[in-house]
Amino acid sequence: MKYKITGFKRSFGIIFTAVLAVTAGSVVYWQQVTQRLAVEARQSIVIVSRELAENFERLLGAELQVLTALSVSLEEPDVLKSKPQLITYLNRQNRRNSFEMTGVQFPNGEAVFSNGLTRKNFLSKDEVDTAYEHSHYVSSRRKDPFSQKNILVLAIPLRSNGEKLGLVFATQSVEFYEQALAASSMHGEGLSFILTKTGEVVISYPEVPFGNMFEFSQKAVFDRNLSNAQMKNDIASGKEGLTGYSVDGLHRFVSYRPLAYNGWYGLSVLPTQSMAEKAQELLLMSLILCLSIIAVLVVLLIFILRMQYQSSKALYQMGFVDPLTKTDNLNAFRLKFSKTAEDFKAKGVPVALALVNVNRFKAVNDIYGFEQGDQILKQVAEALQGGLEEGELFCRSGADVFLLLVACPNRDELGRRLDALLDRAGRFCRTEGECLPLSLTCGVYLIDEDVPFYLMMDRANLAWASAKQHAGKTCAFYDEAYRREIVNEKRIESSMEQAMLNGEFQLYLQPKCDFKTGITRSAEALVRWEHPEKGLIPPDSFIPVFERNGFVLKLDLFILEESLRLLKRWLEEEKPVVSIGVNFSRLHLEDPSFIDTLTDMADQYAVPHSLLEIELTESVVFGNIERMKQVIDGLHEKGFSVAMDDFGSGYSSLNVLKNLYFDCIKLDKEFLARGEGNPRMRQVISGAVKMIKGLGSSIVAEGVETREQADFLNRIGCDMAQGYLFSRPLPVAEFEKRLQDEIQK
Ligand code: C2E
Ligand code: CA
Ligand code: CA
Predict the structure, then answer these.
(1) CA distance 108 to 536
(2) For the chain, does the N or the C end have fewer beta carbons within 10 angstroms?
(3) For the segment 197-238, what is each residue's pLDDT rounded down to a tens digit?
């Protein structure tokens, strides 16, 4: 079974595209943000290195200023002249500043420290010269002569009236500077260096295990267009710069700028990752959030689509699948119908619509129950569907009705194929092994016209109805003449009740006459429909319809009543009276109160029962001999006479007569007509008449039209003649006049 749910595929397409778009968007976003972060990282490293340089310069500047102030305070007083005084002074000053120690180095090279100790040439001659030359001096890293700590030495020249009195110096621990650099180390994630021009590490924060930056960075892999040499060059030539390199797979930005002291450089190193990390973390989180939302949406969408799919499936099942047989239902059949018919047409193969119905399925249900009935329908459906050929269609259109759209290259061939198929489908098995026959009837409309589907159904249905009317026929094809007949039948049916109310049905009487004298001995009541538009309608065109719909029961009783009313009047008016034969359809025999009804009505009109003759047709007799015997005996009991109508129209008539007693046998007019110019047939007729006479019944010959016929029938022993030779069926008034005339003759 196929459920074509295009929305489902489309929705998946949309989801897929959306996910793709979001992913692509995320990648681009990621790249953009990463690039932007890199730019920002570069900018911030430049800022950091500038801060580093400025802070360090400020710090050194401030320290040199403190030292300058100290030198000024020493220039005039005599403190310099007394060593103990100097030491006391220095000591006192030292407590006010942040230096490790302060001191004075005299031109003779003796350095006096605030701790009271002295050293010879603590600052070298070069250092002293540099200090005089630049008015200040900052040393490289060196060891404190007393504590062996790493220190820097700052010095300011001492002068008095242009005379060089020596240098005021101070020592500051490297650790102190390291702490100062910590402020520019980006919370400990970066590295801050103060380097000499040759890359010697003067101060670093945090401490590093190498002494020369350039040696260290030799191992690094520099970014494109950059190199260790370039950095070295830059620093040698006093340029500031920005570079990036990777060490041990970790990328770092490096920014360097010259300081105002000793040609030193401030250099900051920041791991790119750590800079970008937080931003990237945020980015990652927002991406994860995005993806989670997408995931939730996708799950939601899938859930909705699943529901949609399931409800579509359920709807499809409801709309297009027959719940019992699980085959197509009428809707599905209709949908596929045109396309399938066209496909066959394109191949030049005519197609037919066949409607199959299980006969008397209600009885099957009554006998076996609904559950078993359903099983049978399933088996029938299975068998019918199994008999389809390539491209043909099948459905259960309702209850016990099935439709087939079949190829019909040849009408006879299709007829045979369907007969065989219906035969197979009709063999249903109630239990394993026990198979019972079921009869199916089929109406076929050979699609020869482009008419709407419902009309095709109607036509197949009409064909089915015609098949149904012909006992023993499984399949009938639709034809136009039959359709007209049916339409006419419908028209008759729709107007019959009103016609009865309007008094359009009228009683005619046809005399049954004496052969020789032609005198009326009795009469037959025959109905006529005097239609206001169509005129007089003969009973042959409506009695069969009424037989089918049961209205004949009403009509027969109406004619009976008219006859009784007439007889009553004749008796009351003391007019000549003859008995009247009234026709009764076989349907009355199924009514157990038939005889009572007749008796009651005759008594109601006070008509002697002997004046009524009940005409029953031969076919009735043949149908159910037991019931017939019951009825005939009952009628005789009540004093009615009984006639067998249309004798000779069937073939087992003689046999029937052995078991049943009729007061009168009416020879069918066709039976007599067959004797015309046929001596052998005449022999048969005369034999039959003899036999009937032998059984004690009187004989009426119907349809006597010629003198010659009359002579023959009279000769062989018939008692009365009913035929145009003597009289046509007459309206009541005319019939009465005829009786009157006969008396006067
Ligand atoms: P039926 O009972 O065999 O009636 C005799 C039919 O033969 C009548 O046709 C009558 O007009 C016709 N007939 C009589 N003489 C001749 C003749 O010389 N030549 C020819 N060709 N026909 C002759 P009608 O009146 O058309 O009735 C036809 C059939 O309709 C009747 O056949 C009967 O079976 C049925 N019918 C008529 N009236 C009633 C009725 O009230 N109730 C029932 N159940 N059936 C009726
Ligand atoms: Ca009759
Ligand atoms: Ca007859």
Answers:
(1) 167
(2) C
(3) 999 999 998 888 888 988 888 888 888 777 888 888 889 898
**Closest to 56 in 3D by CA, of 221, 262, 343, 208:** 262
Give the closest ligand to the alpha carbon of residue 666.
3
- The chain-wide mean pLDDT, for the chain, equals 88
In terms of residue numbers, what domain contains 677? 490-744
Do 112 and 160 lie in one domain? The reply is yes
- Inside any domain, residue 615: yes
- In this structure, the answer to whether residues 465 and 524 fall within a common structural domain is no
Q: What is the CATH number of the domain that holds 432?
A: 3.30.70.270
What is the domain count for the chain? 3
Overall average pLDDT of the 579-598 stretch: 95
Q: Is 703 in the pocket of ligand 1 (CB under 6 A)?
A: yes
The answer to whether residues 444 and 519 belong to one domain is no
State which H helix or E strand residue 92 sits in: helix 83-96
349 within some domain: yes
Q: Please indicate, yes or no, if residue 577 is contained in any of the structural domains.
A: yes
- Answer yes or no: do 363 and 408 share one domain: yes
Give the C-alpha separation, 424 to 371, whole Å. Answer: 22
Q: pTM of whole model > 0.70?
A: no
Annotated active-site residue 562? The verdict is: no
Distance 708 CA to ligand 2 centre (A): 23
Task: Specify the ligand 1 atom closest to the Cα of 552.
Answer: 44
Cα–Cα distance between 442 and 417 in angstroms, integer?
12
Helix (H, G, I), strand (E, B) or coil at 197: coil
For 30-55, what is each residue's pLDDT tens digit?
A: 788 778 877 877 788 888 888 888 98
**Helix H segments across 121-186?**
125-134, 174-182
724 in ligand 1 pocket by Cβ < 6 Å? Answer: yes
